[in-house]
Amino acid sequence: MDFKLNEDQSMIKDMVGRVAEEELLPLSEEIDNTSVVPDEIIGMLAELNLFGIFAPGDFGGAELDLLSYLLIMEEIGSASGTLAIIIAYHNSLGVLPLLKAGKTDILSSLCTGEKLSSFAHLEHDTDYNSAPKFTMAEAEGGSFVLNGEKRLVPTPPKTAYYIITALLDGKIALFLVDSDAPGITKSGVIKTIGGKGVDFRDIKLEAVKAELLAKGEEAEKLFGLITTHASLALASAGCGIMRRCLKDAVAYTQQRVQFGEAIENFPLVQNHLTEMARELETSRMLVLKAAAEEVKGPSAPVSLARWHTAVSATDCGLRAIQVHGGYGYSREYPLERYLRDIQTINPLAGSEETHRNIIFKRLRQGGSL
Amino acid sequence: MSGNVYTILDTRDGEFPQVNLEALAVGRLIAEKSGKDLISLFFSDNPSAHLDKFAGRGVKKVHLFASPELGKFNLEHLGKLTINKIGQENDSIVVLPANIHGKELGGYLAAGLGAGYVTDCTGISEEGGKIVYKRPAYSGKVIQKLAASAGAALVVGFRPNSFPVPEADATGAPETVAETVSTEPAKAVIVEVKKPEGAALDVTEAKIIISGGRGLQEGANFSLLEELVALIGQGATVGASRMAVDAGWRDHQAQVGQTGKVVSPELYVACGISGAIQHLVGMSSSKCIVAINKDPEANIFKVADFGIVGDIFQVVPAICEEMKRVKV
Amino acid sequence: MKILVLIKQVPDTEAQIKIDPSGKAIDESGIKFVLNPYDEFGVEEAVRIKEKNPDSTVTAVTIGPERSKEAMRSALAMGADTGIKIWDDSLAGADAGVKAALLAAAAGTLEYDIIFCGKQAIDDDQGAVGGAISRLLSVPFVSNVVKVDISGGKCILQREVEGASEIVECGMPCIISAQKGLNEPRYPSLINIMKAKKKEIKEMTPAGLGVSDLASKTELVGMEPPPSRPPGRIIEGEPAQAAVELVRILREEIKVF
Ligand SMILES: Cc1cc2nc3c(=O)[nH]c(=O)nc-3n(C[C@H](O)[C@H](O)[C@H](O)COP(=O)(O)OP(=O)(O)OC[C@H]3O[C@@H](n4cnc5c(N)ncnc54)[C@H](O)[C@@H]3O)c2cc1C
Q: Which of A128, A308, B190, C46 fits C58 for a cystine, CB–CB 3.0-4.6 Å?
């Protein structure tokens, strides 16, 4: 077991970390306040190849390994939950299914960030552990049409394509849809607790022309693969937010004086800080361990990592608010934003329920994690 | 042969700048500690106009290099003329004025004289029979103590405002020697000098700096600080944090800090500046620091001698009012 | 155009610097090292010149131990074509004069039109190298430059000095030290970081460069932490009161005006 990053990985982590710290973090408050991600930011992320992280060079991607991708997601998460969601959706749920399905003609425009892609699966009463129920696909003259409704679909500016799940012959299938295709109606931006600027919308599909990416067993596998991939990416982003919470908390407790002493000297405060460190480090370890095995689809290690990160991040966010005393609740400090972004990221690509189920199944089968 | 202490001075726009007097003071200090003579090489288009400046400063001899082309700084001319004059004297010490030109010259002279080089010296002492030069390194996080290696000559630059400049004393005027100047055409020459409109005093030359940061909210609000500077009068100028410079509120000439200028004025007033480490390294050697910030936890208060916790938009105008009151 | 960029790996600006028990060096453990920010301006400028003049080459040259390859790789990722790294354990603690001699010797083996360096490295904060190699190579040097224009085989440079900008016309080859304001250095893209790995870093030693005199002309007597400032005083009261009190203190106690 080797916990040391190789030279590429550490350089990539440093570079993205710098961009996050110097360029993204200063803008994240504004993104949260205005719910708008400025075009220049998307442009900058594109130039750095953050929209083609693991795709092959032929398509303008950087061909990085999974671990590098996760390191990047942690750095982005440490600056902005919103940008982390946009990048994870695009790479794991947009580029990856297209790559796997061999739908390569539009990949270059996606990897270069000229266009963005997103993923639409959720419906009323569905989660990531189940096939869609209300979105139906029908073959129509060599092509397909979709009818139905999808909920909470990230639609940041420049989103040109959706990967959409639908039922085809009673089974899950994955389709590619042009985001402006006739028959698509998007709701206004749904007010969410966090992830402001991701622009979550409900979308209605009425006889929308779609291109089939995968069906049958193949679709099931692909769905499992991409949601698992996204789960790890989002878990890493969660680690990034936790890291930010801890960093802010340590800095604050060193300078905040009460009863003539920096509050970092108080056992209660130290308790919070060390708990936060535990939460962060265990989450990170579980994510890296899950990523060390080949990621093929839902697995107990991935679910454990994702679930543990979600629970830890929430707790970590709350502790950060607590050590900041009254300021923690104030919008003048970013702590409450961290917590809101954590709450937004946590259920994406798989709820806590889903993950517990996967872990429990494994236990029942007598497997170890 | 035992060397001397030399100061290498020139004029700028026909003026004899304050850093020259400081260089003479530093030179004198070293001369006294080392028992050497203090000698000046003085380059100018009109050196004789400034001879009075050398009186009462412990200078034994001034070599005058007069030529029209020496009216503007030129590394090649100053460098070659100095190296020819001093030659490879053992253990001589060459003191340069604390400005950009002096710094540019320093490395050149050190290489040409086969000397060591100490820049940004802030203190000089004697330890174990050696003259030891203290200088901040690692952005001021460490003080290095350097000495010339045995028998080696040394080029010394210092931080502006780090050494007191005593009034001229009764030691009188030095001997002057007119030098013949012969130069080859220089490969790099100044073709134009641009001074910003209503040129503000540079932060590195100011005795008092009123600095503004992101707390000022917009560029136009710097007028508050300008008003205070005007009320203080000579020697005062406006500085800025990187946030203020990056926002386009101030020219980067005014930026104080790691990637801006390092200043040590007698008074530094930080208005709406949080006190990030990169800012602190640029101003923490100021003699007196005043911080005005509405956040009582702001890091800037850690280095401030005096702090006011409050809104700059109330406090600074109040200071201006009080300045007006006490001035009349 | 053939461009050399002198670069150095230095502790990150945020790094906490502790003095080694020897008192003669800093404790490097736990320190993150980065490409000197002023050198970044130099690399960026060189790469921009190359982008405008496609048949140009940019070679980054550094003196430093094994770890400094990371800084070299940053320069390569930003767009430098090749790297030269000079080292030998006897160089630990060598002063700027020795390093300038090595850099001049290395430059002497190469062709160049422009040599960029940073205004200073933020570890020793000396800024000695540009001037020294200028003398050693007999090549003009302009420091603290915030603007570079190349036309008709000449460089028009803007040097920032106290309270003014000097426009300097300079023949080539020349040495230019970069000051903040020269440009906004790019962040290397993921693809360029990966490409940089394949670029060559040539390793050289002082002996290989024919430099035998490695004796520093300065001696590091010791290092000490900076003097700490006595705790400050918060002036209480309403803005108007506090302002009056502050002006009084500054006039009567500190006597600055
Ligand atoms: C490699 C590198 C180099 C850098 N170099 C430099 C450098 O040379 N110089 C530099 O300054 N920075 C530099 N920085 C940036 C530095 O880290 C800080 O970001 C910057 O100094 C912050 O500027 P600020 O204090 O103006 O802004 P902020 O940190 O945003 O602080 C604004 C302050 O204003 C206060 N405030 C707001 N409104 C009011 C009001 N109405 N009344 C009173 N107070 C108010 C706030 O409480 C806050 O403390 C560098 C950073 C890096 C990474």
A: C46
